User: Fold these one by one.
Assistant:
Number 1:
Amino acid sequence: MDAGGWRFAVHADSPKGRQLADVPRAALTFYWPLQGRQVRVRGAVEPASPEQSAADLLARAPSARAEALLGRQSGHLESLDDRDQAFRTALARIEADPSLVSPEWTLYTLVPVQIEFWQADKDRVHTRLRYERSGRRGPWETHMLWP
Ligand SMILES: Cc1cc2nc3c(=O)[nH]c(=O)nc-3n(C[C@H](O)[C@H](O)[C@H](O)COP(=O)(O)O)c2cc1C
């Protein structure tokens, strides 16, 4: 997270990756059940350049880069042996070529237009506060919300 927004990365050839390419909007939810707190961030998502996405992947551990090479995320897996064999092959490719990146790895930035804070109450009289703006450069407004 920085002034530009919240960053996360996905495999473009996954259900989530295809959904974000199709409808470039997302919500992020951070939930602390013991404190009864939640922060929800909503806005448009923007893909980084291939070079920035590659740099994001190269900064990760070899095992994470090998996993990205597997592809087919969320597709049906026939056996754990198939997974382990594919992972070993991908790791060997990474070790042979440390600059190898999965071209489907996509870094996204979520540019927030709404950030909502929820404080739960044991009697369900919850306190909610939302920061919102009409566009990425608009001024932030703050509103309390009905629970
Ligand atoms: C601790 C943890 C971290 C995760 N980090 C990511 C991540 O950075 N990117 C990602 O695409 N999925 C991540 N996932 C997996 C997602 O929750 C999700 O299962 C996966 O992306 C497949 O979603 P899809 O089938 O909707 O594409 C993470 C899961 C856990 C438990």
Number 2:
Amino acid sequence: MAVPVLFDLRPKERIEELYDFRDELNKLIACYRDGRIAVILGIRRMGKSSLLRSFLNIMEYHIY
Ligand SMILES: Nc1ncnc2c1ncn2[C@@H]1O[C@H](COP(=O)(O)OP(=O)(O)O)[C@@H](O)[C@H]1O
Ligand SMILES: [Mg+2]
């Protein structure tokens, strides 16, 4: 069920669990593909870690 998952206190780790952030995810994928450095900025608990972890989990090789 989607609703309890949204209120989980931990960062999301899978894009299937990530609400919205489609544009941001596509920008991260483009940066990765072009070898550019990306910086994720935002106030606390707006989903920076969730975005990063979900993104890295769709990459074949990554270090967190
Ligand atoms: N886009 C999102 N989809 C689902 N849950 C989210 C999303 N953004 C934030 N959350 C939830 O909000 C809380 C804070 O997210 P987190 O990734 O830790 O934020 P930050 O790293 O910016 O402080 C967590 O419970 C996380 O699961
Ligand atoms: Mg964080």
